[in-house]
Amino acid sequence: MMNDTAKRRRIKIGLLVSHLEDDFDDAVAEGAMIGAEQCDADLVIFPGRYIDGIYADKLRTVYEYQYNTLFDMAAANKFDVLLVLIGTLGTYLDNEHKAQFLKKFAGTPVITITAHIDGYPCIMLDNRTGMKEAIEHLIKVHGCKKIGMVSGPKTSDDALERLDVYKETLEENGIVYDEKRVAYGNFSKFCVDEVGKLIDDNPELEAIVFANDQMAIAGYRAMEERGIRPGKDILVTGFDDDPVAEELNPHLTTVKADPSELGYHAVQEAVNYVVNKAINNDKISSGMVRRNSCGCQGNSKIKTISFGRISDDPEAFARRMGQFLFNKYSASETTAKMRENYVKIIYALDDYAREENLDNEVKKDKVLEMTSTLASEEFFRFVSVDELYASVEYIQQKLISRFDNVEKHLKLNQTFIQIYKILAERNANYCKEKLEDNEFLAWQANSITRDMLVFEAYDDRAYETVVDKLTRLHMESSFLFSFEPALIHLGTDKWQPPEYMYLKAYHNGSDAIQLPHEEQAVKYTELLSNKYLPTDRRYTLVVSPLFSNEEHYGILMCEIKH
Predict the structure, then answer these.
(1) Residues 6+ away with beta carbon under 8 Å from 449
(2) Is 15 helix (H, G, I), strand (E, B) or coil?
(3) pTM (2 d.p.)
(4) With contact defined as beta carbons under 8 Å apart, do 13 and 83 qualify?
(5) What are the residues whose beta carbons fall under 8 Å from the beta carbon of 331, sequence distance 6 or more?
(6) pLDDT tens digits, residue range 322-333?
(7) Burial class of residue 151 in the structure, from the number of CB atoms within 10 Å of its CB (0-12 exposed, 13-18 middle, 19+ buried)
């Protein structure tokens, strides 16, 4: 399919999300970016915030409506397919208003993500399997009977389905549903008051099920304010397996329904539609991820692994372990290659951990060298660190069980200590580089903000200065458009862009270029097909509005890796 795509005109896909600061939307965007790269498709991401959003911090979000203009830009420009994460950007809309919003894209094929709207194909999460597994774990393993729930908005299909699973699972286990034990949040970490009221009104609660991990953050805060220990006094589960789940204390037991797979599969479906005129509704699987907030102790992840003894069938064992660890973007070539290399390491370990080979330094060094080669920066983008260590620990246990000699135990353990050391050092370096990079990006962003303050002087050199700094922020290309003059756009106004915008400066894999004024005009409907965009390679662009309060100055389009 990729070869066929390359021979044709390159496919252009638009992805509409709420905002990239949200872990869920960010993960969807990451998956879409990887999918577009593998399918050789152009991707444009529009982080347009919520439609009719209700924000906890009303003072700082009063002008968030300005981001919504990006959706109109997506409708005005031509795409082969639009992917709309309607489940998040339409969080505060009922299905009727979601359908009305989608009508603005009439004439362009639309695939919705996380919410099914009649007439549109949809990529969905499996809300049921993992949620039921988590609730039954609380009931059957930890003996909980008094279980509360923090659901999402009543306008969210995902929230309603997860609430239905909660009700059904309680009933199936002989527990009477009590509406007083349910609170409704907004899928964000800013629902501390709602969780606090739930706890105060139900002091008998033994556990709380959260409809997503962000609201579980609020739950931890509400419990801390009341001197309640999550995982001890009240057991807690979440949903989504956000990165934050491993950062909370205790680590959050949650449901893994990988949003990056939503973006990845949505792009594949979009390409399939263009090439084969076919779209298949898809559902991303879910399953419980055991950590410590549910009351489990120690490395609970390892308890979920049951692949038998490696000695019985080394090949089958290695394959199952590879599938367990490398389940992200399972259809991708990168995942397949890493999975194969991990399988080879298991084969090498199986060979080394034999009576006749345990003193063979060559075989030992081979294992360590293979581990070092695999543990690249890209490797840590494709694996969960807790699953990685759980899998290595599981392999260690299985291999050590071959010997009843203490000296051989020590010998093998020393090798595994070296393996852990390699993985820990590489992961630490990866995290350190990310941190240093973020610090540099923050410094550069402040510098760019300073330069933007001179925009009102209408000195085009200021635009060139900004683009020049963008070249140092890992951007392959960037395009800075302005309105002339700036537009006054009130929240009550219908967005009315002018016919033309002005490309003040850009870069495309080279130095910043300032265009002469007579060459700057670009039709608003051709912003994403203008002659300065890359044509010799694919790209992923992220689009951002430039505004201050009611004044809308222009648009910045950046080509940047995740």
Answers:
(1) none
(2) strand
(3) 0.78
(4) yes
(5) 264, 268
(6) 888 887 776 677
(7) buried
What is d(CA 71, CA 320) in angstroms, rounded to the nearest whole number?
Answer: 43
Q: How far is CA 162 from CA 87, 158, 169, 185, 210, in A?
A: 14, 6, 10, 13, 9
Amino acid letter at 75? Answer: A
How far CA 92 is from CA of 18, 61, 157, 521, in Å, comes to 12, 15, 11, 37
Amino acid letter for position 395: I
Structure tokens at 533: 């965009």
The secondary element (H helix, E strand) that includes residue 283 is strand 282-284
- From the list 4, 34, 78, 3, the residue with the least C-alpha distance to 276 is 4
Q: Computed over its alpha carbons, how large is the radius of gyration of the chain?
A: 26
Residues in the chain: 562
Q: What residues form DSSP beta bridges with 478?
A: 507, 558
> What percent of the chain is helix, strand and coil (3-state, nearest 5)?
50, 15, 35
Q: State the 10-residue block means of pLDDT for the chain, 562 residues long.
A: 52 95 89 92 95 71 90 96 94 90 95 91 91 96 97 90 96 97 92 96 97 96 96 96 87 90 92 84 83 81 57 77 77 82 92 92 95 88 83 90 90 94 90 73 64 57 76 83 92 91 90 88 95 92 92 91 80
33 token code pair: 């970016």
In whole angstroms, give the CA distance from residue 210 to residue 163. 10
